[in-house]
């Protein structure tokens, strides 16, 4: 009997080691993907800055002030682009403390932070019960919703539209439905929507917002998926634990 208990304990210890290894491997893989994409993405504006500086150095003695002004404005624009990318990465990497959160309060705080950026033609409905709780890092969860709201603002654009946030209670976790009435996303783009630096917005987007959303939800032991159809809008479905110690797997998000 003692030998059996020892064998079981040894097996559990080994399983725990393998679990930690898999978690670390997944984190390293995500970090490696991010670093590779980051290096590629930063290389473009830095090359543009370098080229503009070289031309300016050659034109120091020239008289074409308007051309020099355009080059300096291009340098300024590319530096701002690099700064935005770096700020996004810093937001993603901020550590925090998890706690039980009243989601409706957190959403109202998030909207207060965004108060000057909410387009007047977009209606926002929070259909969340007052006692709807999740267990997460409040700062990271605010960043999740800041990114989702901004994503919806940009998707809806100048048209009239709605953003609706609903909550559904389950046994061990709660589900959040974040929907907008934007134009929707083509089916071919959906598998890449959480990839770093993938964007459907052309030069207007950096492709980090939803990548950060995905990883912050994972950091909080949750799961997220997207449902979208062109012409019918988009819904993000987020599952988060109600209590400490619960980890949501992808099957619970199906």
Automatic annotation (TrEMBL):
Highest taxon listed in the record's lineage: Bacteria
Coiled-coil residues: 57-85
UniProt entry tagged with the keyword tRNA-binding: no
EC number: 2.7.13.3
A molecular function (GO) term: ATP binding
Class of this enzyme: transferase
Pfam family, one: HisKA
InterPro entries: HATPase_C_sf, HATPase_dom, His_kinase_dom, HisK_dim/P_dom, HisK_dim/P_sf, Sig_transdc_His_kin-like_C
Record protein name field: histidine kinase
């Amino acid at each position: 009997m003692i030998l059996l208990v020892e064998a079981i304990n040894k097996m559990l210890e080994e399983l725990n080691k393998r679990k930690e290894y898999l978690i670390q491997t997944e984190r390293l893989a995500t970090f490696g993907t991010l670093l590779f994409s980051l290096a590629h993405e930063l290389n473009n504006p830095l090359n543009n800055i370098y080229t503009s500086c070289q031309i300016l150095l050659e034109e120091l003695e020239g008289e074409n002030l308007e051309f020099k002004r355009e080059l300096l404005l291009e340098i300024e624009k590319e530096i701002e682009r690099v700064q935005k990318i770096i700020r996004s990465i810093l937001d993603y990497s901020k550590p925090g403390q998890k706690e039980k959160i009243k989601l409706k309060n957190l959403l109202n705080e998030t909207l207060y932070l965004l108060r000057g950026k909410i387009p007047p033609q977009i209606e926002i409905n929070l259909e969340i019960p007052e006692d709807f709780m999740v267990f997460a890092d409040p700062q990271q969860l605010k960043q999740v919703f800041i990114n989702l709201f901004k994503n919806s603002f940009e998707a809806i654009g100048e048209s009239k539209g709605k953003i609706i946030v609903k909550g559904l209670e389950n046994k061990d976790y709660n589900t959040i439905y974040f929907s907008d009435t934007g134009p929707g996303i083509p089916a071919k783009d959906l598998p890449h929507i959480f990839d770093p630096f993938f964007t459907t917005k052309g030069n207007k987007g950096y492709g980090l917002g939803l990548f950060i959303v995905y990883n912050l939800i994972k950091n909080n032991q949750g799961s997220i998926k997207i449902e979208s159809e062109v012409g019918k809008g988009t819904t993000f479905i987020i599952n988060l634990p109600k209590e400490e110690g619960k980890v949501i797997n992808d099957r619970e998000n199906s």
